[in-house]
Amino acid sequence: GESVGLHLPTLSVQEGDNSIINCAYSNSASDYFIWYKQESGKGPQFIIDIRSNMDKRQGQRVTVLLNKTVKHLSLQIAATQPGDSAVYFCAPEWNTDKLIFGTGTRLQVFP
Amino acid sequence: IAGITQAPTSQILAAGRRMTLRCTQDMRHNAMYWYRQDLGLGLRLIHYSNTAGTTGKGEVPDGYSVSRANTDDFPLTLASAVPSQTSVYFCASSEGAGNPYNEQFFGPGTRLTVL
Asked: What is the reported pLDDT for A29?
């Protein structure tokens, strides 16, 4: 089965610093990965995705890195802002259309 | 465009009562999903529907049922609620229909407390 592990349950960063959130997955057949952001009291919101034929994808202030050899993803947030404070989930896809969510990493941004 | 709406926003329910959580999407997505999120945990898939008229079981389906009579609506029913079903419930949708790269869009959630 699929499982998702996160290296740090809580990450605290100072405003303006870069943040790196890591995620390990177990199913080598996963070929699509999504990062979601969930603010308190809200549903998960799509941040960025990456397909298995890529090892890096960049968005606005965010970069996702995929290492399929070691089954690891990371989400990098540049110049972290208070509005980035949330729980972040990586979600590998399995069985076509199904996503597996880990427990998430809480990002806290301090002024 | 509203995206996905869920109702009610929150509900307190006595154990043993029947409850239906409503979910409606206006994106004409084929696939829809129900998740529960417990404190300190990620989202777990309860049931899903790949297209109108079909449903399937997810990771934690026991005690829940769903129906998909049309594309837009995907209600989740608790036939006889138990305290362990206290959770936040999220509905989601995606284009589906064989698209292998499906971003799921989530509703705002329903906070359910079973006493």
From this structure: 81
